[in-house]
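Researcher: Before we compare anything, I want clean individual predictions. No alignment, no superposition, just each chain on its own. First chain goes here; please echo the sequence and then give the structure tokens.
Model: Echoing the first chain and its structure:
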Amino acid sequence: MAFTLRNMDRADIPGVLPLLTASFPCMVLTEDALRWREDHPHPGFADRRILAVDENGVPAGFVRAQVLRSPDESGHLKGYVMLLSVREASAGTDEIRTALLAEAERAARADGATLVRAAVCGEGVQVGGERLAALLRGRGYTETSEEHRVLGLDLNDLPEPPPVPDGVELRPFTEFTEDPRPLYEVDREATMDEPGERQGEEFMAYEEWLHTVWPHPLTDLDVSLAVLVEGRVVGFTAYASDRGTRMESMMTGILAARRGRGLAGLAKATALHRARERGIRFAYTDNHADNAPMLAINTWLGYRVAGTDRVLARPDDQGGRGPGA
């Protein structure tokens, strides 16, 4: 099939959404969310969205190249190749996949990346993921230790939430619209020690968080819950939803001093029940393979593994910090 590569623009969004949702069946995404991100670029990243379009101008493939603008502790600028999607019914899918990967690598290097990583998922999470993994390995990519398990849950099968301890309250995010700063502080602290290769990276400033995280149109402020102990916010569980039948976990975090009391499980179970009451049927999440406490909570809630999400590294990056860096 004849195709050309070009940058995505706002007018392409109606054609890109079905491509992405077909390629990533566990993803929660809407046209409004794609438009919002196009209109609100994240200042912490150089971000490119690249399309392969057929002779009729219809999207046949998509890839995102993202480069962190701040160097890591070893001085490298990390680039990520993500969401590589191909219209599987098209002829020449392998050619499209190869061309998109090469263009994303080039774009990441052009935007300053000194390390390039590529995200790839198993077939239950990314249609064509195994073929992409084979392509990456054929180009010399090797697996790092960065692995997430993608989990799915039918909300018809939920355990009852545990009782709320004395002194603990759960409040929806809708009660924080005037001042979400307490949620930001938990997000900042809890994210800093989350497992993964980005652990310890400098967290964004509050003003940046207000611009790029808090107002995202997928954030479900009614389902997401803050955890308060004696009136102080000490944790939260936050969710994105399509306001229809699907939701996805964005972040669950409890301040270190308050962990081990069952607060994360309480918040998540209560939020999932709220979601079910509002008509949501399916929930998805992903956890780093080393995050045993959260994996245990999600197993108790009834989540089951849909597939894995891995990060592979370019061969010319291995002289830096090496696999698993």
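Researcher: Okay. Second chain, same rules.
Model: Second chain and its structure:
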Amino acid sequence: MLALATLFNVTGGPSAARDCSARMIEVLDVREGTLLASLPAQPFSLLWRNSVTLGMVQADYILGLHGQIIQVAERFAAHGPGMAHDGAGWRIEGGQMVVDLNRDIPRLILRTATAYENRLIAGDITLDLTQWPATPLEILSPDCKESPQ
């Protein structure tokens, strides 16, 4: 059963200065610029069904010091018909192929569809992103700003 993310009110909108102790992962509607969901900041994953193989893919991310998103791995059962299942660049872990990465993601924008079962997983929270179908979504962690003294 999926745990639903709690939606938090964020005063001042997505561009407001954040207290460094209250960093969040935010899901924004790119077209409207509105905050759709907010989760406690921590490593997170995006999960979706590949349109060709129909297998699930999981991309793992961490947050850098200033809120930048860094993709650290991608996990999948098979990368497609006719492709070798051994070789450099990936490893097998728990029955899945894992590609280790260290890739900065300047903007993490995606469009969801019910058929692809898009999910954002952060700790024990799973957020069904398909509740906003065909909506361009941005996942981000706004840089925290220290309050002026």
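Researcher: What stands out in the second chain?
Model: Confidence is low (pLDDT under 50) at residues 1-19. Additionally, The radius of gyration is 17 Å.
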